[in-house]
Amino acid sequence: MKKAKKIWFNGKFLDWKKAKIHVLAHSLHYGSAVFEGIRAYSTEKGPAVFRLPEHINRLFYSASVLDMRIPFSKEEVKAAILRMIKINRLKECYIRPIAFFGEKMGLNPKGALVNLVIIAFPWRGLFGEKKIKVKTSKFIRIHPRSTTADAKISGHYINSILATLEVKKAGFDEAILLDFEGKVAEGPGENIFMVKDRKISTPLPGAILPGITRRTIIEVAKSLGYSVSEKKIEPRELKKADELFFAGTGVEICPIAKINKILINQGKVGEITLKIKKSYQEIVRGKEKRYFKWLTFVENDKGNRV
Length: 306
Ligand code: PMP
Prior knowledge:
Structural class: alpha+beta
Radius of gyration: 19 Å
Number of helices: 7
Shape: globular
CATH architecture of the largest domain: Alpha-Beta Barrel
Bound molecules: 4'-deoxy-4'-aminopyridoxal-5'-phosphate
CATH superfamily of the largest domain: D-amino Acid Aminotransferase, subunit A, domain 2
């Protein structure tokens, strides 16, 4: 991991090494933090953050699930992110805002201070141009009645971590988690799409984290003329798919070449996956005017000091 110079910590720009927290932080003990994974891409007009308002809305939504009051407004958080990119002189980067409860013992977080940290660093994504091998995990995705599954809460990621460790040990790149009904849910940190007979489908919201990339792909694929449906998908349907791909901020659009022992599209990247992947790369880098609406350009930063 490449470090950057500064980390934004409750409104202050600290040196990377000095951004530390207390060992009694409630969120360290109980997983009660909320966070986002956002990316900025290089465009002709300088760096631009992809779908920044949507990510910030989700951050505040996740916080509300934990009754956590982030001590900054959405506008302040957005401005701080743009400043961070500027101050660290980043061209393309990953941005990780995280809100967490400070020192407090006991499960009830009430009374603990809420902290907000923003980390931004250069990053090229999770799998690069790789076609990946996935395995169905023995762990099911967190039950939507055990938690609020569509919030991005740190504690939820134990589920993802266990699935990842399991499949990596078996020699695979990434896991697929099923939901409590045995239907396909998602990857540990990304949503899944299937192509069959030129029709695209993806699991319904409910047990999954309905990603911002997922929403993006649904809109882009439809405008490219494809039919896209959100539906319950059986695990056996994946094995018979013409194409499979993951979608998420970290993996962008990542083709799946093999699921368990089965090759998908003879292990080659499918035509529709390729088309969507190409389109996504162009959109995030500001090469598609009609999708400028999804970009927040750093150069437009008004210089608000947060
Ligand atoms: N599912 C899970 C469990 C995730 O952690 C992520 C990454 N945030 C996604 C899906 C994809 O979401 P997004 O497209 O918003 O990055």
